[in-house]
Specification:
The complex is a heterodimer of chains A (172) and B (260). Chain A is mainly α. Chain A has helices spanning 17-31, 43-51, 82-94, 105-110, 140-155, 167-170; strands at residues 73-77, 100-104, 131-133. Chain A has a three-stranded parallel beta sheet with strand order 1-2-3. In chain A, α1 (17-31) runs antiparallel to α5 (140-155) and α2 (43-51) packs across α5 (140-155). The longest helix of chain A has 16 residues, at 140-155. The radius of gyration of chain A is 18 Å and the shape is globular. Among the domains of chain B are: 25-151, 2-Layer Sandwich (Beta Polymerase, domain 2), CATH 3.30.460.80; 210-251, no CATH class. In chain B, 19% of the residues lie in helices and 18% in strands. Chain B is elongated, with a radius of gyration of 31 Å. The mean pLDDT of chain B is 84. The chains are: A mainly alpha (172), B alpha/beta (260). The complex binds iron/sulfur cluster. Iron/sulfur cluster binds at residues 41-43, 78-79, 105-107, 112, 136-137 of chain A.
């Protein structure tokens, strides 16, 4: 005997078809966010800790992937130097759409304490960022919170990325 | 507030001096007779122009043209088999010269020697990589940071900064936050010069947060269109999760049976 509701029309009616596709797609996307194994400086150590057994990113469906082709989140964890900016952007370009970016730590957000000639003053100068995560370095819990925030954000997006207002920024 | 003083010539003339602060000086000691360092100086002979002991370390001033000769003597006669560091100090504003130093280590005697020489701006120095392989990267770094050319170096190329970088960052005249080339480097390289207007200048105030910037920032639950004006606050949009869209059994017409 079915325990769940059978007659959907009786409660609030069927949802509009497109909405449910959105929900389904975003459910899938947000629960299997695979970040790129990509660390730049000390923040990367905290990122590795988040992936390890104690903080266990796997339970959120977040598994680090060693190839940008398989990843859909880029966690910019650390100081981005000007020499490396080109390669960070190339890795971002190599990721397949849809893709999201978490900027982790003060260095990635604003250049942090490295107010110098050799550090990119905020990775948003070269890559569109979805979540700015403050801290130096942010603890693994903070990174997990950022990831949950990103999941929330994805669930509120339209599954068709072209409809998202953020898309405008992506072209920049 | 402290009075503003032009700081273009900070090295030649100090612009701020605290009259109670005395710069600490490391005492310079004579080389003791019959010590290991006395033997070193004897081996060097006329090559050493000036010498003293500083914190248990022999410092030898030499002529820049004789550097390979001095290193050969130190390595082959005195047993200084390691070159732990080599670089330069910019004294251009003060004396118009670079000071080059070579830090050498004798493992069997546990003694260190610093060899110091001076060259003028634009002059080159002879490489010591034929004697010490560890000087290879150090000399490349010196070339990268100060622009000092090294003759007969096997592979003289920038080591830290990108190959297409302009300027030598450790010169005292190089601004700490970079010149114009440095500040647009990543933009020019990735997007091209015409994108400078789109991206805008660097924000050198990391504490600045633009609360009303809707081009770069959005908050979950307060989404607004791209570039919308939110100076009088944005409307809250209730957060709905997919879970809340599931059928609420308590209010639906379907009644669960007892087993539940
Ligand atoms: S924000 Fe702090 S911890 Fe993170 S990379 Fe920068 S200096 Fe290191």
């Amino acid at each position: 005997m079915a325990q769940h509701q059978v007659n959907y029309a009786s409660a609030a009616g069927l949802p509009i078809a497109l909405t449910s596709v959105d929900k389904l797609v975003n459910w899938g996307r947000s629960n299997s966010l695979w970040p790129l194994t990509y660390g730049l400086a000390c923040c990367a150590i905290e990122m590795m800790a988040s992936g390890g057994a104690r903080y266990d990113f796997d339970r959120m469906g977040t598994i680090f992937r060693a190839s940008p082709r398989q990843a859909d989140v880029m966690i910019l964890a650390g100081t981005l130097s000007k020499k490396h900016a080109e390669f960070a952007r190339r890795l971002y370009d190599q990721m397949t759409e849809p893709k999201w970016v978490i900027s982790m730590g003060s260095c990635a957000n604003t250049g942090g304490m490295f107010n110098t000639y050799a550090t990119v003053q905020g990775v948003d100068r070269i890559i569109p960022v979805d979540i700015y995560l403050p801290g130096c370095a942010p603890r693994p819990e903070t990174l997990q919170y950022a990831l949950m925030m990103l999941q929330k954000k994805i669930r509120r997006e339209s599954a068709n990325m072209n409809n998202n207002t953020k898309q405008n920024l992506r072209l920049v | 507030m402290r009075k503003y003083v032009p700081k273009d010539n900070v090295q030649g003339k100090s612009y701020y001096t605290d009259r109670y602060w005395v710069a600490p000086r490391v005492p310079r000691m004579e080389v003791e007779a019959d010590s290991h360092f006395a033997d070193v100086l004897k081996a060097l002979g006329k090559l050493s122009k000036e010498s003293y002991v500083e914190i248990g370390q022999l410092v030898v001033h030499i002529d820049a043209t004789t550097n390979v000769e001095v290193m050969t003597v130190l390595k082959e006669t005195c047993g200084y088999t390691q070159c732990s560091e080599q670089s330069a100090v910019d004294y251009l504003a003060k004396d118009g010269e670079f000071e080059l130093f070579y830090q050498l280590l004798n493992i069997t005697e546990a003694k260190r020697v610093r060899v110091v020489c001076r060259i003028k701006k634009g002059e080159a120095i002879e490489s010591i990589t034929s004697l010490y392989h560890s000087a290879n990267f150090a000399e490349r770094e010196m070339f990268d940071m100060f622009g000092i050319k090294v003759n007969n170096h096997p592979f003289l190329k920038r080591i830290l900064m990108p190959d297409d970088w302009e300027g030598h960052p450790l010169l005292k005249t190089y601004p700490m936050i970079g010149d114009e080339f440095a500040s647009w480097y990543e933009v020019d390289k990735i997007f091209g010069k015409e994108y400078r207007d789109v991206i805008g200048p660097e924000n050198r105030d990391p504490a600045r947060i633009d609360r009303y910037d809707t081009k770069r920032f959005s908050r979950v639950g307060y989404e607004v269109p791209f570039d919308a004006d939110i100076s009088d606050g944005e409307k809250e949009q209730a957060i709905e999760y997919s879970e809340t869209l599931l059928v609420d059994y308590t209010t639906s017409s379907k009644t669960l049976d007892e087993r539940r």
